[in-house]
Amino acid sequence: MTGGQAVVEALRAENTTHIFGLIGSATMEIFDALYDADDIQFVGVHDERTGTHMADGFARASGKPSVVLAGQNGPGATNLVTGLAQAKAAFSPVISIAGALSAEHVYRDAFQEVDQDALFKPITKKTWTVTDTARIPEIMRHAFRVAMAHPRGPVQINLPRNVLSGSADYPAIQEAKNYRTCSVPEASPNDVSRAFELLESASRPVIIAGGGIKTTRRFKETVELAHLLHAPIVSSPGHGDAIPFDENLYAGQMGPRGNQVASDLTRNADVILALGTRLGFNSTFYSYSNINRNAKIIQVELDQQAIGRFFPVELGIWADAPTVASQLVKFAKESEKQIESSKWCEEYLTSRSIYLRERQDQADMQANPIQPAALFRLLRDILPRDVVYTMDAGTLCLQATDALNYWQSPSLITPLDFGLVGFSFACGLGVKLALPDRTVISLMGDGGFGMTVSELSTAVDHNLNTTTVVMNNQCWGAEKAYQRDFFNERYIGADVSSPPFDKLAELYGAQGLRAQTIDEVKETLQLALSTEGPSIVDVAVDPEALYSFRRDSFKHRGG
């Protein structure tokens, strides 16, 4: 086989069903081999960055590795950088492939030459440049293994032109099932006993469910443990779908981006069971203002380096989070000790009920221009339970992270770890390909949507039935809020001009809709949900509905 054929056969051995990418002359041997690969769908994109976001969304939604292919070296490869940095921050197993210069042209200032090894090493788990056509299956297999090993993350494979055009005799390419690790570590009996002793003696226990619960889709053990311990559950930001919304012991997301009830729980807890979470920036800002300084922390993580990294722990357990939850359930059922935290739990349930009622009542459904809280209430009220939300960074969509209800995992996919604007729409297209039977809603600001609008062609070409709600406030909201609150309203670069996105969508062949009132939002959403193909809903939201999220960043200015 040629090197290009070997790449496709290696992808087939990994059960690859979709490849996102942009054609280029440096990888023509791969594309020619894909021509005959009827079992692999190639999704042609308009920009390698957005193609990477699609692959990222596909990987997070499916729980499987996903592939993006930059057909060109140089600029094709450099366009991958933002998407791969986002995927690394989100622990998303994206397999990124790019063409590279022929070996004889390296270090000669050749056309489109850039040091791709140096470029990708800081933003991937591992980067390879294949130097021998015969080693393509080996490197591909290793790349998938690295991407899926904990902690998961993106990898980069650079394939020089002479390697792809060369030929080699290959043995049978090994299938993924023959080498992929299937078991995960569990806690020792001694650690289970010590953890339970801490939990059963607590008067204010809290369980934090992080990515280790969400990505495994195994939440039932955590819920059962919470009921046995009378311990409320919170989730780390971006993982609001780790536990279903209708679980009464689930308070939602905690920390700076979370709701008040969940945040108060971690501020007041005396024992915290942290299941599959780093207790990192988005959860805590690395500050005891978001977590009780005196709490005894039991941290369960598969990433050994994360245990006790930001906060000292009473007990660190290197193990799979849902497996440890299951071990604790078994231990609790066998124990005859009486749990004494029921009063704490009852107080929490009262607070949760008040919070949810106020969240509903405080949404002004008559205001014009539309208030974000009203839009979020409408989404809660009318969208089906199978909905998957993708979000952008920025002030309006940050307001949405705990203002929506998440019923199934996965149902919330965000760029919060990297804070990326321009992520949501393209990500939603990848999510839809991974979960074709689910309702996909992408929330974006007008600035972020303007960055990625060219992928409307991709959505139309592949008839991807997602609904993108553009929360149009005609500004870069977070930054404008900072200029308003800390820089005496000295606005520069904060305002955004855009065409009517509904009309633009129609020109691309998508369904374009516009809403100026909440009633119109309801009508357009119902129409979008009942129509095949992509829909864009341009929603006019109040440009004054801004807030300074990172007030601590400008406290030196006296704000």
Largest sheet: 6 strands, parallel
CATH topology of the largest domain: Rossmann fold
The proportion of residues in beta strands is 15-25%
Which CATH first-tier class of the largest domain would you pick?
Alpha Beta
Number of strands: 18
Q: Percent helix among the residues?
A: 25-40%
CATH superfamily of the largest domain: Thiamin diphosphate (ThDP)-binding fold, Pyr/PP domains
Mean pLDDT level:
93
What is the CA–CA distance across the termini? 65 Å
The backbone outline, from C-alpha atoms, is globular
Give the count of helical stretches: 23
The radius of gyration computed from the alpha-carbon positions, rounded to a whole number of angstroms, is 24 Å
Strand order of the largest sheet: 2-1-3-4-6-5
Q: Detail the poorly predicted runs.
A: none
Number of domains: 3
Notes on the structure:
The protein is of the alpha/beta class. The chain has three domains: 3-178, Thiamin diphosphate (ThDP)-binding fold, Pyr/PP domains (Rossmann fold), CATH 3.40.50; 189-353, Rossmann fold, CATH 3.40.50.1220; 363-554, Thiamin diphosphate (ThDP)-binding fold, Pyr/PP domains (Rossmann fold, 3-Layer(aba) Sandwich). It is 38% helix and 16% strand. The protein is built from 23 helices and 18 strands. The strands form three sheets. It has a six-stranded parallel beta sheet. The protein has a six-stranded parallel beta sheet with strand order 9-8-7-10-11-12, sandwiched between helices. A six-stranded parallel beta sheet has the order 14-13-15-16-18-17, sandwiched between helices. Helix 23 links the parallel strand 17 (511-515) and strand 18 (535-540). Helix 1 crosses helix 2 (28-35) and helix 3 packs across helix 18 (424-434). The protein is globular and about 70 Å long. 53% of the residues are buried.
